[in-house]
């Protein structure tokens, strides 16, 4: 099996490789092959850490044939596992983690291609990646004077609108973009974000599979699914801390706020991380809009993103972990405080608990009701576990009967 397929298992070629290989996924699962444990790790890391890279280090494709085979086959098994969790938020988070990991790998491939560093591992080029999603004819590079590599590209309006969202910030709106001959100008990093959406949609496609819990592959995976559900339920989250004390925010969030205050546009991951944090500390969409009033973030985008992040039980998505934020270059691990907490929210909670006196920004500025709760006073708020945040109440173990999926699909 091809290392490139293992690196990008959602590529059409990878799917064909799995379908054409002399392996049967039900047999692999029944025999508890290494790909099954790697699939469980894949889903666990996706839901809890926002990445599907192996715990022991990023998969580069430089491994031996056994590891390559296991990495590739773990993908279709992971898709079955996440289907068995029976949770829409879990599927969305899984797809987002696959896309984030794939983008990291793609960036590494492109850096290697640029000659910035050499690697003996197989890699894809930008054109290959665009072709994979039918974007080859929709994207053209802007000639770069004095440089081998273009810094900007032009994306046809149709795909641009399909793979971007106004919720990413004002700079993504068409009115704020250079537009010529039916194409929109984007930077290279923005083009990768567009590709990320295409990858996420590809992974999301066809999920969840309909499976009969008592039969075949689903029955054989029962203990793995139970293990994942138990892990998720153990990740208790004490609910929104419900105090807005900017002086106690972790450096990553302070840096993002200061960047936005300088009127610099945040990237999609930066904006997502900040919104997830603010919602995670109990702020309502209105409060977040007020809090970000003098920044590059616009009210409409904030509302879209925060309402997506929030549900009537509190935050549905935990903020990304420190590890994920470090991968995006958002975390600089000041004073090595990654040792203190695994994610910015936990770090903030620790600081609030340790503070002698905390004044809520909302009280100081007369914003909101100061309790971060849109609901009636008597309604319960927050207090959900991380498993509920990730899986919601839909993580019930109830299964849907139906045909066995095509496990190689996407
Ligand atoms: S270690 Fe965590 S909390 Fe601290 S700056 Fe990095 S991401 Fe933020």
SSE layout:
Blueprint: H1 3-7, H2 12-20, H3 25-30, H4 34-49, H5 65-84, H6 88-113, H7 126-132, E1 139-141, E2 152-156, H8 157-163, E3 179-180, E4 183-187, H9 188-204, H10 216-220, H11 222-234, H12 251-261, H13 268-280, H14 285-291, H15 299-309, E5 310-311, E6 314-315, H16 322-327, H17 344-354, H18 361-365, H19 386-391
The structure holds iron/sulfur cluster.
Iron/sulfur cluster binds next to helix 12, helix 16 and helix 17.
What does this protein structure show overall?
- The chain is mainly alpha-helical and 410 residues long.
- It has a domain at 241-371.
- 49% of the residues lie in helices and 5% in strands.
- It contains 19 helices and six strands.
- The protein has helices at 3-7, 12-20, 25-30, 34-49, 65-84, 88-113, 126-132, 157-163, 188-204, 216-220, 222-234, 251-261, 268-280, 285-291, 299-309, 322-327, 344-354, 361-365, 386-391, and strands at residues 139-141, 152-156, 179-180, 183-187, 310-311, 314-315.
- Strands 1-2-4-3 form a four-stranded antiparallel beta sheet. A two-stranded antiparallel ribbon has the order 5-6.
- β3 and β4 form a beta hairpin.
- α4 packs across α5 and α14 (285-291) packs antiparallel against α15.
- The radius of gyration is 22 Å and the shape is globular.
- Mean pLDDT is 81; it is low at 370-408.
- Bound molecules: iron/sulfur cluster.
- Residues 250-252, 322, 325, 331, 333-334, 337-338, 344, 347 line the site of iron/sulfur cluster.
């Amino acid at each position: 099996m091809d290392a490139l397929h293992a690196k990008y298992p959602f590529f059409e070629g990878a799917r064909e490789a799995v379908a054409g290989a002399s392996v049967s996924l039900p047999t692999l699962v029944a025999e508890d092959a290494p790909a099954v444990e790697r699939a469980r790790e894949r889903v666990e890391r996706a839901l809890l850490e926002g990445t599907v890279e192996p715990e022991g280090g990023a998969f580069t494709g430089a491994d031996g044939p056994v590891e390559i085979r296991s990495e590739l086959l773990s993908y279709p098994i992971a898709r079955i596992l996440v289907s068995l969790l029976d949770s829409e938020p879990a599927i969305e988070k899984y797809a987002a983690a696959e896309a984030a990991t794939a983008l990291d790998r793609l960036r590494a491939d492109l850096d290697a291609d640029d000659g910035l560093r050499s690697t003996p591992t197989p890699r894809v080029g930008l054109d290959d990646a665009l072709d994979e999603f039918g974007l080859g004819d929709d994207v053209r590079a802007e000639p770069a004077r004095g440089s081998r590599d273009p810094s900007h590209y032009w994306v046809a309006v149709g795909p641009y609108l399909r793979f971007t969202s106004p919720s990413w910030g004002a700079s993504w709106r068409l009115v704020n973009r250079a537009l010529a001959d039916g194409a929109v100008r984007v930077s290279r990093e923005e083009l990768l974000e567009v590709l990320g959406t295409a990858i996420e949609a590809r992974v999301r496609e066809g999920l969840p599979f309909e499976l009969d819990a008592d039969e075949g592959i689903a029955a054989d995976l029962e203990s793995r699914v139970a293990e994942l559900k138990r892990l998720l339920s153990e990740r208790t989250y004490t609910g929104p801390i419900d105090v807005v004390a900017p002086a106690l925010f972790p450096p990553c969030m302070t840096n993002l706020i200061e960047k936005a205050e300088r009127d610099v546009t945040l990237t999609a991951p930066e904006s997502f991380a900040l919104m997830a944090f603010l919602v995670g500390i109990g702020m309502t969409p209105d409060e977040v809009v007020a809090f970000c009033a003098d920044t590059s973030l616009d009210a409409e985008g904030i509302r879209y993103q925060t309402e997506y992040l929030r549900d009537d039980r509190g935050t549905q998505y935990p903020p990304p972990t420190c590890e994920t934020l470090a991968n995006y270059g958002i975390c600089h691990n000041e004073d090595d405080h990654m040792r203190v907490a695994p994610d910015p929210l936990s770090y903030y909670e620790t600081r609030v608990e340790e503070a002698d006196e905390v004044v809520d920004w909302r009280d100081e500025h007369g914003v909101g009701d100061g309790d971060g709760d849109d609901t009636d006073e008597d309604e319960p708020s927050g207090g959900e576990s991380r498993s509920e945040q990730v899986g919601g109440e839909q993580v019930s173990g109830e299964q849907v009967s139906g045909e066995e999926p095509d496990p190689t699909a996407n």
